[in-house]
Amino acid sequence: MADLARVLNEVIPHAHYVGGIVRSSLLRRESSDLDITLPAADVASAARELGRRLKAAVFEMDAEFGVWRLVTHKGKIQIDLTAYQGKDLKADLLRRDFAFNSLAYPVSALPEIVIKPQKSGTARVILKKLKKNLIVDYSGGLQDVAAKVINISNSRVFKEDPLRMLRAFRSSAELGFAISDKTLKQIKKDRALIVKPAGERVREELDRLFCTSKAYDNLMRMDACGLLTALFPELEPQRKCAEVYYGKGGVLKHTLDVFKRMEYLLDHLPKAFPKYAKKLAPLAENKPLYKMAALLHDIAKPATAKVKGDRLRFFYHEEKGAQMAKAVLERLHYSRADLRLICAMIGEHLRPSNLASNDVITDRGAYHFFRDLGDAGVPLLLLCWADYASYVSDAQLRRIMPKSAQRLMTIAQAQKTANVGKTLRHMQVLSLLLRKFFDTPKKVQPTRLITGRDVMAALSLPPSPKIGEILEAVAVAQVEGKVVSKEDALAFIKTLDVKEQHIRAR
């Protein structure tokens, strides 16, 4: 491909690089695209000419705001051409969200454009050798970049696009910048507007925030200025619920603690599960999904809270929570697959705890767990780890993590040390389930030895739900080691009393 900077200068010498590419380049960070602004009258013709010169795909993204996108066939570089939002460059920059995004650099200055291909097939770019005296700055953006602070460029930025409030926290998490008091004050004032942006735009910002290792810190700041519960009003009732158990902040405090532990777990899988860290690593690529599950896992506790005797109980909050979470996720336009996964995790998040109520975790119990949960089985174990870990301090967690892979302690032993013992035992149950899943998969996911046709032929039965029940009985027998071959399976089913309501051996 011809030198990109030279071609841009030949076609649009009066244009400017703007926004994220300038700020990121000053921070020596790569950017996913090149944002360029120029007069409205020139955008369409410039896009077509650049497409021809760069052999790039060209399409109009937004006719109202004059936005055209180019994607080069070689290198997969993304270039966005946008018309001035205002009468000129100054007006455009002053309308942008934050001062550090209100910077421009002339295309005619011919900065060095370094292109770095990615494994995904796309490319990231950075501008090198920028001359600071050529940077256009009307809002003090250069000063903010140097001070690592996020300042709004004017008091109208959130009214013009409320999603910018969420973007402030996402940018803080990605860049490590502080959000100024002035900006936080304006977010608190405008927080109710956050319901206006389209759900998919909100989800995209949340996904980027949740991909970072600073999501928890920023959720706490969002809550402090009222943005968190403005975005998720379903969480507000948690704040005063069960304070006797969780302290000030009630269930919401617990929810955020679980989110914190989930963030830690996804960043430190080798510490939590050293033997299975590599096998679990692909799950860490879905950080936004698991963090969202953590955020919503107890969403129904306030709605289900009842005093039973001298205890506050939350009967069926997991089932109700899955229903409430579904509505939230639909509002954010999650895919059906992601919605099903998160709701399954929330709706079954008490299952491992129920297993832990037994001193012995049998192969049969593990089989039923993974059979019922399917693809959500292992992800659910991560949610439960974060849930259990939220009940102990950071220091206590560090002490018990190395012990989580040890032999399962008894319930009596766990009860001797209150929360620490209970958390350790539950973590040992999770490790045990992972061990059964990864080390003895035939025990929890047995290969089917016979088919429904085999059952009908052997027992002279017509098609009916009984056939599925018989196959399930065979699978359990496999798990227990009673059946190891097709011949064994055919012999076993002939020992079953299929006339009973619940199939059992004669």
Q: Would you write up a description of this structure?
A:
By secondary structure, the chain is of the alpha+beta class. It folds into four domains: 4-147, 2-Layer Sandwich (Beta Polymerase, domain 2), CATH 3.30.460.10; 148-218, Orthogonal Bundle (Hydrophobic Seed Protein), CATH 1.10.110.30; 232-444, Hypothetical protein af1432 (Orthogonal Bundle), CATH 1.10.3210; 452-505, no CATH class. It is built from 29 helices and 15 strands. A hairpin with a 5-residue loop joins β4 (67-72) and β5.
Give the helix proportion (percent range). Answer: 40-55%
Structural class: alpha+beta
Outline, from the CA principal axes?
Answer: elongated
Average pLDDT works out at 93
From the alpha-carbon coordinates, what is the Rg to the nearest angstrom?
A: 29 Å
Mind summarizing the main beta sheet? 7 strands, mixed
The name of the CATH architecture of the largest domain is Orthogonal Bundle
Unreliable stretches (pLDDT < 50, length at least 5) are none
Distance between the termini: 77 Å
CATH class of the largest domain, please? Answer: Mainly Alpha
What is the third-level CATH name, the topology of the largest domain?
Hypothetical protein af1432
Strand content: 5-15%
Question: How many DSSP E strands?
Answer: 15
Number of domains: 4
Q: Which sequence of strands runs across the widest sheet?
A: 3-4-5-2-1-6-9
Per DSSP, the total helix count is: 29
